[in-house]
Amino acid sequence: MILVTGGAGFIGSNFVLDWLAQSNEPVVNVDKLTYAGNLNNLLALQGRPEHIFVRVDIRDTAGIEALLNTHKPRAIVHFAAESHVDRSIHGPGEFISTNINGTFSMLEAARAYWTGLPEAECAGFRFLHVSTDEVFGSLGDADPAFSETTAYAPNSPYSASKAAADHLVRSYHHTYGLPTLTTNCSNNYGPYHFPEKLIPLMIANALAGKALPVYGDGKNVRDWLYVSDHCAAIRQVLQKGRCGETYNIGGWNEKTNLEVVHTLCAILDELKPNAGHASYREQIHFVTDRPGHDRRYAIDARKIERELGWKPVETFESGIKKTVQWYLDNQTWVAEVQSGAYQNWVEKNYNQRDTAVTTQDGKP
Ligand code: NAD
Ligand code: TYD
């Protein structure tokens, strides 16, 4: 039995689905179901007694401790977080509370539970904290990719809150000996990705005939990893990772945002051509940049490859095609998450941005 937090969100639900596709080891799935949590992501698990969903806030230390004592998991995989940079700019408070206090609360509950375990189970227990490459800050064009020894330099309230959580996890290993593992992964994409993030937002807007809002000059670079590759990396770290260590996870797929959007438009032009035969590219609009927008992220994933034998299976080309096809096949899922709360967010984030008058190449 393992306990997963945030298992109704994008990566967490993919992880739970993959886990139960590959084994019968039960999962206790703890999620508060914020706007980003969606039980529809887990519909395929209906009738599987190995999936136990519990609606609990990770900041409820006593509630988490009670769950641990009832289910006696051999590991915790901690995904639950506020995860969207733009939302952290509009309202940082929830990020501080969930990502920092929530992780602290998880660590306290885990420590109490782990301390009380019999010796053999105590030695095998793991607390795996899922984090991001954004804690390392922003790279220049010629800088080497982030490695596990790159200094932390977070630039957004989101990345700062994740950095603080990473430090707490580190301290619980060094101070109390809690058997922790931390992963720092690059940008994920794939099924069940909430349409506030770049890739699903662009697909949804393209299909709805809406503008494709590219921030700034569109030349910011992200490394992209297909979500099931991330899930496989986490399983590998859980199984073979060394306690107290951190592992960078990435796809070796650095792309500018404009390259990503052009790729999405080209795939949609092929799979679902616009009625008027105009390319979806014509919907691209350059809009006011994100404040403090990190220019480039890149991951050096050689440690996890060397020590644990993990490598991504998908290329960007294969993963992005699968992703677009998934969104075409699951338009009801998208329509259902685009609720009233989603509309309020779109209003807040986009209607207040100026649309810069530019060409598709980003030139004024
Ligand atoms: P998400 O926003 O899609 O899902 C987060 C989940 O956490 C939701 O189901 C939400 O209901 C739940 N949650 C939020 N606050 C909670 C609380 N107080 N108590 C219990 N549950 C709560 O996020 P995601 O994209 O799936 O990211 C998962 C984790 O992976 C996060 O820790 C994130 O920092 C990290 N990460 C994400 C990416 C990415 O590209 N999305 C990359 C690297 C790391
Ligand atoms: P996002 O998916 O929010 O992930 P993150 O900021 O955590 O990397 O954004 C990915 C990139 O896409 C980032 O450089 C910001 C940019 N972006 C846009 O240009 N337009 C958008 O509407 C969004 C949501 C993001």
General description of the model:
This protein has 364 residues and is an alpha/beta fold. It has a domain at 2-194 and 223-254: NAD(P)-binding Rossmann-like Domain (Rossmann fold). Helix content is 43%, strand content 15%. It is built from 13 helices and 13 strands. It has helices at 10-22, 61-71, 85-90, 93-115, 119-124, 157-176, 198-207, 227-240, 257-271, 302-308, 316-329, 331-337, 340-350, and strands at residues 2-5, 27-30, 51-54, 75-78, 126-132, 180-185, 187-189, 212-215, 221-226, 246-249, 254-256, 284-287, 355-356. It has a 7-stranded parallel β-sheet, sandwiched between helices. Strands 7-9-11 form a 3-stranded mixed β-sheet. α7 (198-207) packs parallel to α9. The protein is globular. The N and C termini lie far apart (56 Å). Bound molecules: nicotinamide-adenine-dinucleotide and thymidine-5'-diphosphate. Residues 5-6, 8-12, 31-34, 36-37, 57-59, 79-83, 98, 102, 130-132, 162, 185, 187-188, 194 line the site of nicotinamide-adenine-dinucleotide.
